[in-house]
Every structure is written in C-alpha cells, then in structure tokens.
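Example record

The entry below shows one chain as it appears in the dataset: sequence first, then structure tokens.
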Amino acid sequence: MSRSPFGELPKNLAQAVDLSSLGKPATPPPEVGIEITQTNLVSQILPASNAQVVIVLCWSPRSAQSKEILNILGDFYNADAAGPNPWILATVNVDSEAAVAQALQVQSVPLAIAIIQEQVVPLFESVPPREQVRLVIDKVISLAAERGIGNPNSPEEEVAAEPPMEPEEALALDALEKNDLPTAINAYKAWLARSPGNSYAELGLAQVELMLRIDGIIPSEIFTIAASQPTNIEIQLRAADIEVAQGNFEPAFGRLIELVKHSSGDEKKIVRDHLLGLFKLVDPADPQLIKARQALASALF
C-alpha cells in the first residue's frame, strides 16, 4: 500500500481477508451511509470529497468481519454528525460493484479508505480495536482540515495537537512500507528500550511480530492440521495467530486457553505467554478480551 499523500496515518497491521479466499455469502451488513455505485462515485462521492471527508468501507457479503467494522464506523459517523467536523460514510459492495472495487484497487475486505479532494487515502484493513478506528478518523479529519476540508475554523482548543512522530516509529513505518518486517520489529524494540512501557510501541511491536509469524502461512492448511493435532503447541499457536489477524478473537483465545488447561511446565508457560501477547492486540474494553482474561485466570489457578 503506497504512502499517504497526507502523511502517516495510524495503521492496523493485522491482515484482512484476501478476496480470492472468501467463501459463501454471510449476512450482509446493515444499510449505513451511502452505497457507492459506478454512477454516483463520479457524480456524487468525488465532488463531495472536496467539502467533507468521505470514509469508505469496501466490504463483501461473504466477509463476516464486514458487519462488525461497519457497526463501529456507523457509531462514530452518527456521533460526529452533530459535531463541528461531520464526515460522510459510504460503502462499496465489492461483489456487486466490481468496477468500483477495481478503480479503488481493492484486494482484500473489509478495507477502509478515505477520499479527500478526490484523492484516495488507505486507512486500515480487517477490524482494528475500536479506539484505533477513532484515532484514524480523528487524524484524517485533522489532516483534511489543514487543506481546508471540513470545518477548519473550529476553535483551536477543540483541535488536539498532533504529537511529533518518534524517530523509531518513523523508521518502523518506513520499513513496513517496504514490507521489511525484521527492521520494523527492531525499530519498535529500540523505541521500547528508550521508552519502556510505551503503549504505542508495545502495540506496534505486537502487531508486526504477528505479521512476521503468519507471513507465508496458508490458513486453511494450518486449520486442517490444528483440527487433527489439538495438542501440537506450535500448530495451535499459529492457528490462533491467524484467527487474531482475521479478527476472530474468541476462537483464538478459546483455542489457547484449552491448551493451557491441558499442558504443564514449560509448555504451559509458552502458551500462556503467547496468549498474553495476543491480548495486547485487542481493545482492553472488548468483552471478548475481558472474558478471555477471566478464563485464563481460571485455567491457571
């Protein structure tokens, strides 16, 4: 994904679902926002992006994650509608609007992009934690306001100043643009060495380490092996990694908690530590995470 012309945006580094790998249709997401077609993309959406930020969710009825992220975007869209910086929410069904999906260079779903002054800005894939989605929206609105889009005349005290990017963060993001995962990992580790406990550095490191662990893995093959080898720790860890990357937190956590229950000694510690690492990738307020922490505590004690 190319570098944004509006500067670096917060990224969800988990991988979305490749279009070619999607199965049978799931329940379509609810109707929220404007449904983009080949016709209104040119006549309505692009012109509107010169006055307001347009955030577009590219989805497929075959993607179970689409409804989840659309609900999150819908909540923020409704919350911002009456505020000083409203924005436009739009959706693209990549199955029924293949030409639009091709024009927007959609390769996986769900995919969120912004359109600002008729320019496409990639935002995130899959289903990031809710607070990360909020950060992305706020930053897009702020960057657009610098170009006179939206409501640039809001009181200065209402506009949060963007903190300067840390040098290690810049190095990590540059490495990710080149798909150089080891360099990105080293950059985040250096950031943590200089600033122990930094939540952004911890999150970035956890995300890139997850990307490296599942790089080149074929999910269907791992899930098949995992189903036949429930006590194979390495396979179960990789299966959980894939599920978390796909946003399927509950089955991933359940898989490893069961493994904790039926292992001992060093093996139990390996599984526990891996699970705690995956917990870092989820919103602390997510009910699935809260439930999983309780279940892990029960399994351990």
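Notes for this example: Residues 1-27, 152-161 have pLDDT under 50 and may be disordered. Residues 65-81 form the longest helix (17 residues).
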